[in-house]
Amino acid sequence: MPTPLHPRTSRPHLRSVSITGVGSYVPARVLTNADLEKMVDTTDEWITSRTGIRERRMAAPDEATSDLAVAAARRALTAAGLTAADVDLIIVATITPDMMFPSTACLVQQKLGAQRAAAFDIEAACSGFVYALDIGAHFVQSHTYNTVLVIGAEKMSSVVDWQDRNTCVLFGDGAGAAVLQNRPSAHGLLTTCLGSDGGKASLLELPAGGSAQPTSAVTVASRLHYLRMDGKETFKNAVNAMVGAATVALEKCGLTVDRIRCIIPHQANLRILSAVAERLGATEEQVFVNVDRYGNTSAASVAIALDEAVQQGRIQRGDLVLLVVFGAGLTWGAAVIEW
Ligand code: UT7
Fold it and tell me: Is the same domain home to 120 and 205?
């Protein structure tokens, strides 16, 4: 059996980084395909056969992204045996921040009572959690911080056009969190691989409300504050990018896919998951799926799935886990973790 390489920790002055706790939160309200049939011209049959999604969660009107993030973070800290006072840094990955500024991470810091923590947001759309994991890991590796809280959180219902059947059936709300620390006995995060292609930015975007098209009566009337997607092109790019990122990450560790106990892909569409698994040569049993219950929760997606996989006993100490993501930007990434 080949020994995995540990490219992240091959330099002696760098510490290894482990995920010492995970947690997730989804809002209570369930929106089923039958509910959507009453809202737009669609059918349960179309949504299920094209996407695998049966239902998704919707945040309450008074529940913002920071509230979802805090609920997930509390669970991750409890799982790690820590309190908010132990956190040195909070990174929130989101495309649905509470507001333009301050950052959602600062609002989470206050709501959690993590008074020692620095806080900032990152934005890599659906790839955000793996980007944030990579950034957070560098702070632990370099001895800058001991405890980093990484959160993927989205209230996608706030940016979805509920009149556009092409997109509104796909997304859901939720949050997932992970605590990063050095655990000397474990290898932890073995490697990451990130990528982007801004040349394809227009495939999936929310055009207005930023500096390019500030909010005006015209942008609102033109429905430019909702997300737009070229589904077919996005689909093709998603499969290619996820297969590419996973392959590079595995190669960097000297691993083949059969060594991976659990593959956790971004939960965008069941057909994308199946295509990625097939092209990687993975079995169905290796791939974790919860898109049927939550739809696409963007940056929260793999974080929620990771927590559920741990809770269900799909991942045990010492198992190898592969996260693989894709999103607007375009962005993509993969991470290999020894649990
Ligand atoms: O998380 C970031 C990345 N996002 C993704 O990875 C999403 C990638 N894309 C997809 O998952 C798929 O492309 C979709 C699920 C969005 C669409 O599936 P598709 O098989 O590519 O369908 P399509 O775009 O070819 O649409 C086929 C037909 C169209 O009708 P016409 O033009 O052929 O008459 C659509 O208007 O289905 C129609 N359609 C719908 N019909 C019923 C689109 N949405 C719906 C709907 N219900 N909700």
Answer: no
